[in-house]
Amino acid sequence: MITPDRNAVLAALEAILDPRSQRGLVSAGLVQGLTVGPDRAGFMLEVAAADAQLYAPVREAAERALITVPGVRKAQVVLTAEGEPSVAPGAVRVRRGAQLSQAAQSDTAPPAARAANAPLNPAHVKQIIAVSSAKGGVGKSTVAVNLACAFVQLGYRTGILDADVYGPSIPRMLGSDAEPATNSDKKLIPIEAHGLKAMSIGFIVDEGAPMIWRGPMASSAVNQLINDVTWGTAQTPLDLLIIDMPPGTGDIQLTLAQRVALAGAVIVSTPQEIALIDVRRGVAMFEKTATPILGVIENMAYFADPTTGAPIPIFGRGGAKATAEAIGAPFLGEAPIDMALRQACDDGAPLVAVQPDHPASQRFIAMAALIAQSLKGDDARPAPSISFD
After folding, report:
1. pLDDT at res. 93
2. Cα–Cα–Cα angle for 15, 20, 21, nearest 5°?
């Protein structure tokens, strides 16, 4: 690998003219967050919302200029706009030439524009389940991936969508850095790994690239990752699509809860009260959108003593179960702190997929069976409307 010369990168970008000031991009102050590393270079091009269309060709020209610099094999220029209502065409340039199509209007667009957008109901997907925590650090993605693999073990055609565009982790957990191809309809073909069909912004951008996006742009990207992907076909539809929700209750979460016909949500929490506070907020969000709570999982419930096997409640125990009872939702079970479970995700080989007979895997398979039982006969619901009192 060769690290490009930073001065050569700046000189190449200075040769690209700012259409507003007619100065080079560097002199015009448009080169923000420049990163130069082995085989790559990139920066953020931030402009006014009204200029997003004007600067789309500038972004493309900047990437072409970067590729001419010795040592640059991958060029990445992110076009973002201050207060933008939507993503400009080609606003996100991604690795090895892959590119997201033009984003749909965001939730900040005028009502007439929003009404023109199709709901986020992907074709040939029977049911969609959100796995949510409303708080980071509780192992939600680990649970989501292993639940998805558990559905595969139960015989369901299953997909998983990584909706966390700021911190995608599904590619690493599935052990894949493949780039999605596109079909004749210019839709992305999901990556297949461990029996799953998977899609994540992490398959499209470089792992170390920061996603410096405001809420509307991130929501638009998630829109595309759902609607512009061939999850299934008329002959072989996807039985279940698992959405690994990002933490919190912000733009992306509300967009998904409002505009996707969710069959229900699975809530993941650790036992301690500080995590359960946020879980209750997440539950309230789903209640506002009339999304059923399919169940609650208590992750990191305990650590088994290596000598005796006795449970050691590092984070307390039983808090998630008590919360499930309080909200009238099924308690799906406990997932203990398990070294094999953690190591498998780090290695890109989910435990349920590679060791289905492992005790931790059997817990996930049992939880998936409970969820599947609650979904039987549940026809697809229309996308709910959202309102706040």
Report:
1. 38
2. 65
d(CA 298, CA 266): 11
Element (H, E) at 240: strand 238-244
3-class secondary-structure state, position 238: strand
Query: Does 283 have pLDDT greater than 60?
Result: yes
**CATH code assigned at 99:** 3.30.300.130
Q: Which domain, by its residues, includes 317?
A: 125-375
Q: Identify the CA nearest to 90 among candidates 57, 120, 115.
A: 57
Integer Cα distance of 6 and 25 in angstroms: 15
Q: Does the pLDDT at position 117 exceed 60?
A: no
In angstroms, what CA-CA distances link 356 with 21, 147, 184, 243, 341? 61, 12, 37, 22, 11
Same domain assignment for residues 136 and 281: yes
How many structural domains comprise the chain?
Answer: 2
204 in the same domain as 82: no
Secondary structure (3-state) at 167 = coil
Residue 246 dihedral angles phi and psi, to the nearest 5°: -75, 160
